[in-house]
Amino acid sequence: MTWRAALLLAAGALTLPLWPSPFVGVLVMTGGVLLLVLVDRLCAVPPAALTAEREGDRTVRLGGTATVALRLGNTSGRTLRAQVRDAWVPSAGASPDVPPQRIVTVAPDDTLVLPTRLTPTRRGDRPALTLTVRSYGPLRLAFRQRSGRPATPPWTLRVLPRFDSRRHLPEKLARLRIIDGTQVTRGRGQGTEFDTLREYVVGDDVRSIDWRASARQADVLVRTWRPERDRRLVCVLDTGRTSAVRVGDEPRLDTAIDAALLLTALAVRAGDRVDLLAADTAVRATMTGSGRPALLTRVVHALAPLQPALVETNFELIASEILRRQRQRSLVVLFTALEAGALGEGLLPVLPRLAARHRVVIAAVHDPVLTAMTTGTPARPGDAYAAAAGWRALAERDRVRTALTRHGVTVVDAPAGALAPRLADTYLRLKAQAQL
Amino acid sequence: MSAAARTVTPPAPRPAAARPGSAPKRRRRWHRLVIPLGLVATLITTTLVAQALDRPDADDPGYLSPVEAGEHGGSRLAEALTRRGGTVARETDVRAALLTARTGAPTTLFVPAPDLLRSETLSRLSRLPAGTRVVLVDPSVRVLHAAGLPVEQHGRRWATKVVGPQANGRPCPLDELRPVRRAAAQRQRYTSDTEIPLDLCFSAGLARLPGTVDTVLVGADDPFRNDRIGEHDNQALATALLGVHTRVVWLDLEGPEPPPPTPSSRPPVTDSSTEGPGSETTPADGTAQGRPSRPGDSSDDRRPADSDDGPAPNPLWGAFPLWFWAMLVQLALALLLAALWRARRLGPPAPEPLPVAVRSAETALGRARLYQRAGARGPAGRTLRTAALARLLPWLNLPAETPRDRVATAVAARTGGEPEQVEELLYGDDPATDQELLDLARSLDALTRAAAESPPEQTHGVTPTRTEPTEGEPR
């Protein structure tokens, strides 16, 4: 029953002084209202006679707005008057065009489209939870509502990472083209892979003259080299406890995802193969880059649902997974944090095995709070203690970095905003020096 | 209105939704057990406390008084006795009551609250004239000992039970109780502690001790109270018990009996005489002979006219017209409808697992607080000095093992200070107070800033960069 039934009964109570026998009046009016409620309820469209479907966007980039529409069909022969609540998780930022308080009307054998605009506040999969339909009778004295009727049509909106470092991509691609030799700006001869023979021009390195080819031709020919193609790049994301630390206003994992996306975009353009592995105590996501055109999209989709977990990362698992998957020598980029406890006990024991087979780059995000603790002029005794603790943390970090460097690992340690371009620079440098 | 099941499981195929879903289920199951049991426990406790509070005490004002018309009074019993043709003499003084009982024809001495009597008085009860009947209501162990009655208490019930007159399978030996069929008399039960046989009735809830003084113990006060006297054969029991003689002396004490005014006038009576009923009665002291009994005091003064009709109806009922109450009922029903309307929610709340969030530099900040709380000025100062040296030495192109004085000289030359001061600053004693530590931190900060800003005095080609292949800015 609804507020109307209660109001009807309360209004009837005001007529009681006029009744000859008030308590009989109470009985008559209560019975009458209950009878009306019962009749109204019987006239309401049963929820089982409704159908619900969804259509709309499957993916949206973080910060964008998606629209998912609910199609509510009325298969009964009566007009449906109903309140419809389509519940999404709170972080999906759902705002229905028709608020759930409003009563919508659907004619018999008709379909109503109820669009919902979603502006998600977090990356990952945002599911629709529950659809609730409250079907009113013609008098709106009573309603029918059953959980699970009509069944909630499942829908999951995948919120993709924002990929802010996209803006660095043109500059890095231009540098890649220079290295690649497609743009003659600084010359070639950087790589080790034979490209073509061309005529000697003044200024070429005489060591690159191909005498055998020159003997067959009238001209002097030089060999040109280009960087290797079809190298392998493995992005490894640590989703353990250190990735949950909020640096700036986003977790470390999001910064790592951003940098991994830039690296993937660059590597795809450079003709390299990109594999992906995300793990903490278990493997969270894997992807093998074979289909080249859609590789970036696939990486984005593989990375989008990753969430940090409050567990210690099992680097033993990560190393064995990499060694099992990658037979060839590849560039392994490990996104983690330079923390003495996590890396010293987990990574350093397995690093020799990994570094013997692959080229390892460790990408870590700075903590700006630590920098602020050590560089500011102390004003209170607490600041002096904080500076001491900060210096100690930095010293530990330097020790870890030294230990990693001893194994031939390149460490990229940068603030959150600069990690992606620095990592791209490292990749380009390694590529130019043919160290992949 | 819909009676649909409320347990809505989110149908979205989320693996994370399974874990939060199991915890509320267990909690609900836990509630399912605790709520009914707790409700029952609360009900039992409330009942017991209310029963204990509601039971009258012997020292309540008006308890079993012949002039008290309340539910714990005895006015109806007194009235019934008067109607039978007897006289009820209400005595509020013990000495007067004993005196009245001794004079004239054999009487019945009714003591509703024997616990209020002193031990000396109780021992004197056995010396009343032969044929006197003494009725004690629920006497305690102290009373039984003081009165020298060879009786033991034997089990007590929470509430009075309605029983027939027979005890231990034998009929009641008291002839006057023959018309009584069932009465609420079994609460405190009695048994004999010697081989003297007791006359037990009502499942040992009533005991008569034979002797010159006819002492009757009643374990329950229900047959005498105004509120229960009308039930079963309670009135018949009470009137038969008290009405063996036409004269009833009703000892109506308002509080514990005061000590005798002249302690030297009477030698203390020993309580050890177990032969109470058989001992010879002492002659009464004639000084109180002239005290008149007050039969007119009995029951007519304060008794309301219609005590038999039960409690009067609440006057509030008549204060308002009938439609007012009907309107209240209907408005309550409307409220009930509104509550039913609000009780059905439009779908369950939408749950979502929250993402884990760890604040940045949590460990470093925590360690700083630990340093401060422990007062670790020495380690903090050493860390600051080591860090400052680690920054200064590469700038000055000095190896790590440089002696102190050379470092101090080089730093002083770079920043323009005294070498002794610089050496004291870089290699001095540990700070003793927080202020010293703060000064040290400030001086080191100023020193490193000055060293970083001033140009290097020797223009080596070597720039102070790190040797390890590290990308990105060091910090």
UniProtKB/TrEMBL annotation, chain A:
Residues 197-369 form the DUF58 domain. It comes from the Bacteria. Pfam families: DUF58 (PF01882). InterPro entries: DUF58. PANTHER family: BLL2464 PROTEIN (PTHR33608), SLR2013 PROTEIN (PTHR33608:SF3). This is DUF58 domain-containing protein. The lineage of its organism: Bacteria, Bacillati, Actinomycetota, Actinomycetes, Micromonosporales.
